Amino acid sequence: MPLQDESASALPAFPYYADPLADGCFEQRPIACEVCGQAREWAYVGGMYVEDDPETICPWCVADGRAAAKFEGTFQDVDFSETASAESVTAVLNRTPRVILWNPIHWPDHCGECCTYLGTLTPSGQPEITSHESVQQEAAVIARSMSRTWTNEDALDCAEQGTLTLHLFQCRTCQTYRLSPDGT
């Protein structure tokens, strides 16, 4: 079967993950997808939570949920609040490339559905986002969960120094930012 001509711009969209290509979830190399059987130019390399990791999955089978269904697994090791819609939780677990984490985290929601993962917050590299009111509020909540005396600045300083990873998310409806901490 001949390879399909697939540029990076032809990769499927992942509504709950802003840029999985930049985060290394996909690699451009010829494969025969174990799920759909098609010859593809892109391989999913992010891993799954299954008994035996499949070796060659195409991004399209991740996006449409066929890979999770075939291997009876999920792509995330996260928890969700009860306010997230069941549809968005299913999409994150079964149709969203794996977010690389140190530990299981809480995948935030807002406006009734799971937020989109934007990546790791680096305060000095993202000053506009870091100064946003919702980020400052989220950092304050995280700081207080770590120590009664900590402020939002303490949490952001730890993120800057690399002693705390802050995963940045954004509401798909109102664009509010949310943070989820991950110890390193």
Automatic annotation (TrEMBL):
InterPro entries, per the entry: UPF0167 (IPR005363)
One Pfam family in the UniProt entry: UPF0167
Family of this protein: Belongs to the UPF0167 family.
Protein name as it appears in the record: CbrC family protein
Organism: Deinococcus budaensis
